[in-house]
Specification:
This is Cupin domain-containing protein. It is found in: Endoplasmic reticulum lumen. It comes from Fertoeibacter niger. GO terms for molecular function: auxin binding. One of its GO terms (biological process) is auxin-activated signaling pathway. Helix content is 17%, strand content 40%. It is α+β, with helices and mostly antiparallel strands and 200 residues long. The protein has a single domain, classed as Sandwich (Jelly Rolls), CATH 2.60.120. The strands form three sheets. A six-stranded antiparallel sheet has the order 1-2-3-12-5-10. Strand 1 (47-50) and strand 2 (53-59) form a beta hairpin. The radius of gyration is 22 Å and the shape is globular.
Length: 200
């Protein structure tokens, strides 16, 4: 009989108000959100000398903005230089604000089971871009951005969806560092100007 199953599912003494926590979180969200930024000013956007290159974070989970699902940064590539090379499971979209150059993309074969495996394919593809273009990075593609202009910087706006991270798929691997990368470097408007004048 069905009630014979009681011996299995009735076991356990743990109590926790998890559903009530969801209700409480929803009820207090408007007050919390009122304290989160809807407008972020340039001086509130943190610089980072990252392994991927010179970044100015526009929207990031750590910045206390109203944005729940998207992270975005501006990448500055000095004249004749390049970004780092990396791979991530999330797809990425970049808008070219300034400059011209090209991307190198290398697709990977992926297997996701209890473990996660990826292997680069042999083909490396080149995609040229210039100001006004949008660059699409497919999921799990090794990619790198190159500034083809020896005299002018390139600026790209990168956007990725952080839902991948919340889904347990926050796979990000740095394969090559940007030439400008220096651990612990402190960036200011003046140091950025120096990078733009003196590539490498």
């Amino acid at each position: 009989m069905a009630w014979d199953e009681t011996r299995s599912w009735i076991a356990g003494d743990a109590n926790q108000p998890l559903y009530q926590a969801l209700l409480d979180d929803a009820a207090t969200a408007p007050a919390r959100n009122a304290l989160r930024k809807k407008v972020v000013r340039p001086d509130e956007m943190p610089w980072e000398m990252a392994r991927q290159g010179l970044l100015k974070h526009l929207i990031n989970e750590a910045m206390n903005t109203r944005m729940e699902t998207v992270d975005a940064y501006m990448q500055i590539i000095p004249p004749g230089s390049r970004s780092g090379k990396h791979r991530h499971l999330a797809e990425e979209c970049l808008y070219v604000l300034e400059g011209s150059g090209y991307d190198l993309h290398q697709d990977c074969d992926v297997e996701i089971t209890d473990e996660y495996f990826w292997k680069p394919q042999d083909l490396v593809q080149r995609f040229d871009w210039e100001a006004g273009d949008v660059i699409y990075i497919p999921p799990n593609t090794i990619h790198q951005h190159f500034n083809a202009d020896p005299a002018r910087p390139a600026r790209l706006i990168s956007s990725t969806n952080r839902i991948f991270k919340y889904s347990g798929l926050n796979d990000l691997e740095q394969i090559e560092d940007a030439p400008e990368y220096e651990a612990g470097a402190v960036l200011t408007a003046e140091t950025i100007r120096q990078y733009l004048r003196n590539p490498g």
